[in-house]
Amino acid sequence: MLMSYSLSASATLWEKVKVPSNGVSNSIGSYSNGCLAGGETLPLEGEGYQVIRSQRGRYYGHSEMIQFLKGLSLDAQKLRLGNMLVGDISMPRGGRFSSGHASHQTGLDADIWLKMTDAPLEKESLVEVQPLPMVHIKDYKINNKNWSNKQALLIQLAASDERVARIFVHPVIKEQLCKSEWQNRDWLRKVRPWWGHYYHFHVRLSCPDGSTNCKAQNPPPPGDGCGAELASWKPQKKVKQTAQNKKKETQPKKKKPVKITPPQCLALIQ
């Protein structure tokens, strides 16, 4: 009976739950179809970081993610990169959002802003802090006024952690990282281009030990991803529509299959 529920039907239930479940952290399901048992809270302020927009209640994660974020902020402090601003992680028990994210459901995803501050922000500023764009979207080029080595080093620090499976950034940011000279470029393989990530980067951890019901993502392709793959993301000039192109546009789109919520997740919101 439990398996008959779909994520679309139970999406808002996750947002109504305000506290994590008891027990040790356990990520269940996939990043975009799962939940979080035994979630931990990231303190709203710590050494070298602050949580922004905490009123959204999205500062819960697997214990591995909480440890990762605390460690990353300490490493950033040692390099004098500035104060780190942490955005959405997950809701208290993970699960699907009604808007804003398709992933972030298992406590293993976190958004870290590329806006670094010299000193901690006032509490009032944390509520409505504005992003700092690193990309001129229309021109498809880096915003040199805002981008610096600080942003590049912060991404490198994050990607070099063995717990990290992927980091998503705007393709232009990936291109900028590829242009830089690095003694070790292995970590670039984890940095994946994805639209929308022009003012923050999205960290995704691998399934932790003990989370036996966690569904891992396939590893990134071999190489640093700086060649033809990255070039394919660059927008192409529009060409005149042909009869064949028009035919493709008029064809009905296939419906996406309904994702069934893992039964272990449904038990968390009963």
TrEMBL record:
Keyword list, A-Z: Disulfide bond, Hydrolase, Metal-binding, Metalloprotease, Periplasm, Protease, Signal, Zinc
GO BP: proteolysis
InterPro entries given in the database record: Peptidase_M74, Zn_M74/Hedgehog-like
Region annotation (Disordered) ranges: 214-270
GO cellular component, one term: outer membrane-bounded periplasmic space
Disulfide bond sites: 178-226, 207-214
Pfam family, one: Peptidase_M74
GO molecular function ontology, one term from the record: metal ion binding
Protein name: Penicillin-insensitive murein endopeptidase
Source organism per UniProt: Photobacterium frigidiphilum
